[in-house]
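DM from R.C. (forwarded with permission)

"hey, sorry to bug you on a friday — could you get me a structure for this? deadline for the figure draft is monday and I only need the backbone to look sensible"
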Amino acid sequence: MSDLTPEEAFLTLYSDLNREGPGAPADLGWALSVAATPAQARIMDAGCGSGADTVTLAKERPQAQIDAVDKIAQFVEAAQKRTAPFGERVQVAQGDMAQLTGPYDLIWCAGALYFLGVTEGLKAWRPALAPGGAVAFSEPCLLPRPSDAARAFWAEYPQISDVAGIRARVHAAGYRVLGEQMQVGDAWEAYYIPMAKRIEKLRPGATGALAAALDEAEREIARWRAAPSEIAYALMVVAPE
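My reply, with the result:
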């Protein structure tokens, strides 16, 4: 596998993983409850990856219309296969999550809003929300009194703030916070433990770009293991003012 491009190496690493970021099914149940998302809602999974949360949304709201979008064709294809049992009420497409139309009762975005920016993304999505609609998203968050290890983990994300800073970015977009909780521990294990097993499987014979991708993933896991109780996402449910 020495002739892979960096992008191909990245996709090879992620091709058999259940998730592309931290999270757990219970997170969606909580968000749907806080947002008071109706049974027959129209829901968007923005930045859906390979569809783990799309499947959970479809199960949690069996009468809802679920749309999902991701820019990476390989993830879209995987999500389409995973959601096929739900039939026409789940639609997965390749596209730009910054260009949502709606109207949606809930826009769910797990760990991807930072690509747009919290304030910028929420402003872009406001026209896509139905009256009374909400956005649920997870965002990197510094817990109180972070250690050097926790700061080192987030060194490549200079925009990171504590939860008060996230709230400020939400308010700057003209939204109010309906609920918030921290994703620590189990949500991250659900992401990193399978990744570590995937690295172990791919390591024999890996060279070039693939070896580099595996090395970087191992370094990331090691940084998380140095402070697992301090590495967090803030899961926020917000709605326009």
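R.C.: lifesaver. The chain has nine helices and seven strands.
me: no worries. The longest strand covers residues 129-142.
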